[in-house]
Structure formats: structure tokens, C-alpha cells
Amino acid sequence: MSIVVLKLKPVKRKTEERPKKCPACEGETFQRWGWVTKPVKDVVVKQVKVYRYRCCHCHHTFRYYPEGISSADQSDRLKQYAAVCWTLGLSHRSVSVILSGWQVRLGHMSVWRDVQAEATDRNRHNQRKKVRVLGVDGAYVQGWGDKQPVLVGVDMGDGQLVALGSVDEHDPRAVRRWLTGLVKQLGVSVIITDDLFSYRKVAEELNLGHQVCQFHVRRWVGRTLKELRETVPKNWLWILDEIDQLMEVLPPQGDKRLYALWKQLGVRRAGRDKPRTPLEQLRDLLWRLCQAWQSYCTFQAEPGVPWTNNATERAIGRMKMRARTVRGYKTWPGMHNGLLISGTAGV
Ligand SMILES: [Zn+2]
């Protein structure tokens, strides 16, 4: 059994440490200027001692808070705790009820603000993050009376959701715009996606390494081969066996073999208006695999690149589970924040 431990931020009752810089003028010498007792909303600490200081340079006076305390009524730890409870599936009101069991009175609107603040924190953290391998996938979440398409980016290093865009994955230009900014910001060099054409195009344009999730590929190729086995003339069935084997082994030179098979088959299209014959379908399959082949094999040469996009799908799963019970998001930024921390495995 594995036990996951929730790490909350520490809270100090007081601090003897002195401020380093004046918030007004950046002066570095201070006089103590009395102290106050500040009541705090927290599960353990009920009040803290806060010293006031006076800047020797500009005479500005200010409070210097102990670790985990700010000018807010709640401790940093309580904000974090409220956000985690919400992420695990409680409504804002239920979080408020849970906290009342610890004699903490926190209104549901405060909980909402805490969730938003945690997301802002998370965003800031993500913007500084370096992500070499990024999993990208599209999903739909319940939005404003309708399903909203979103595009998610997951750090394949730690499985954390790092970016979320209000973008439809079937729109190559929108995908390109979103990914371009992200790649620059995070320093991405490889993306993992399913095999939609729009992703391959973007990867080429942005000069990114590209791994197509083999889970997806095997599913559709397996289905196509099964259909073709019923319809392709018997003397060509060996090609299906060979495709099967290539998919199983994924040799880096597989595209050369696929190209040779494509030439050997040598059927021409009967005409645009006619339905494709089974052999034409087989030929199209060979061509499609041949074109995409290198993006099936990237994981063999690049360390740290997985061969499926499972981590991204898990993040989407977490996000969707939470999104089912999310109510009352009126705007994309609000929804973005909620979904972002839902997709983050904070615990
Ligand atoms: Zn000063």
C-alpha cells in the first residue's frame, strides 16, 4: 500500500528574524516599533505575534509577519488546505463545513478565493518551469451550457498539468498559436500527442521532436487491419502481416519498408468520386504510416520520451472528474484556474 502524504506550508507563531529590506525604499536598517497580536484562521495556530518595524532610512513603519502568515485573516496553510479539499471533490460550501469541524469559520466565498489564489501561485510556478517533454491533448469539459474544447499541456517529467488553453485541437492554426507561446516559455523540445495531422504540422513548423502516442496508433491501425483482412484479396494478405510486425517492433527504418510495400502494391486511384477499393485503402494505410513513421519512433532515440501519452490522459481524467462538479464559472479565467489545479496532482 502506498501512502500519499499531504505537505502543507509551515506556520510560525512568531519570528525573531528581522526584515531584510524596507518594502517602501529598500532600506536595510530598522528599529523595532512595538508588536501586535494577530488572530489567525488556521487549524492549529489561533494567534500570532507580529512585530512592527520602522525603516531608519525613510521612517516607513510596517508589520513583519512570521512564516506562513500574511496580512490575510487566514494562514497560508489554511488557504492551501481549502484548495486541496476542493480539488479532491468537495464543493466550496462543503469545504467551509469541513473547516468548521476545526473551529475555523471560513465562508464559501473565501474558499473560492483560496482556490483561485492557489491557481495563481501554480501559474506563476509553471511560468518559471522548464519542461523538455510536453504531452499535449485535447479534451472537452462542461462549460457554459455547452461542452468547451480545451487543450492541455502536461510536463512528462513529473506528470503535472502545466498549461491549459481554450483551444480546439482540430483547428491547426489555433493549436499552433497556443503551442508556439508555450514552447518558447517552457523551453519544450519534444511533444507527445495523438496522431492528428494538426500536431504533426505544428511539430514540423516549430522544429520540435514529436512522439505519437502508440496506444492511439495501435488502436486505429489494429481496427483498420482487421477490416482489411475481410476485404483484401488473399494474395495480398501477407502485407497486412508485415504491417502488423512492423507496428509490433517499430524499427527506425520501418518507413523505408512501408514505402517499398506501397510501391509494390502499385494500385492507382480509380477516381475521386468512386468509393475506394480494399487495395486502395491498403495503399493509403501504407502511405499514412510511412509518412508518420519517424514520429512513432522518437522515444527510441530520445531519453525521457515515453511512447504513450498516458500521463497526459491521467491529468485530463483528474481534471474532468473535478470539472463535473464545478459550478458557477462565469468566465474562462475562473474556469482555467479551477481546472488547472484540478489537473495537478497536488496530493
Ligand atoms: Zn524605508
User: How do the strands line up in the largest sheet?
Assistant: 6-5-4-7-8
Mean of residue pLDDT?
88
Estimate the helix proportion, in percent.
40-55%
Bound molecules: zinc ion
Distance between the termini: 16 Å
**Secondary-structure-derived class:** alpha/beta
Structure report:
The protein has 347 residues and is α/β, with parallel strands linked by helices. It is 45% helix and 16% strand. A hairpin with a 4-residue loop joins β5 (147-155) and β6. α3 packs across α12 (332-342) and α4 packs across α5. The longest helix has 21 residues, at 108-128. The model has no long low-confidence stretch (mean pLDDT 88). The structure holds zinc ion (ZN). Residues 22, 24-25, 27, 55, 57-58, 60 line the site of zinc ion (ZN).
Quick overview:
This protein is of the alpha/beta class and 347 residues long. Helix content is 45%, strand content 16%. The chain has helices spanning 76-87, 92-100, 108-128, 172-186, 197-205, 214-231, 237-249, 254-265, 278-292, 294-301, 310-323, 332-342; strands at residues 30-39, 47-55, 61-64, 133-142, 147-155, 160-165, 190-193, 209-212.
SSE layout and pairing:
Layout lengths: L29 E10 L7 E9 L5 E4 L11 H12 L4 H9 L7 H21 L4 E10 L4 E9 L4 E6 L6 H15 L3 E4 L3 H9 L3 E4 L1 H18 L5 H13 L4 H12 L12 H15 L1 H8 L8 H14 L8 H11 L5
Helix pairs in contact: 1-3, 2-3, 3-12, 4-5, 6-7, 6-9, 8-9, 11-12
Bound molecules: zinc ion.
Keyphrases for this structure?
three-stranded antiparallel sheet; 12 helices; binds zinc ion; 8 strands; 347 residues; elongated; alpha/beta
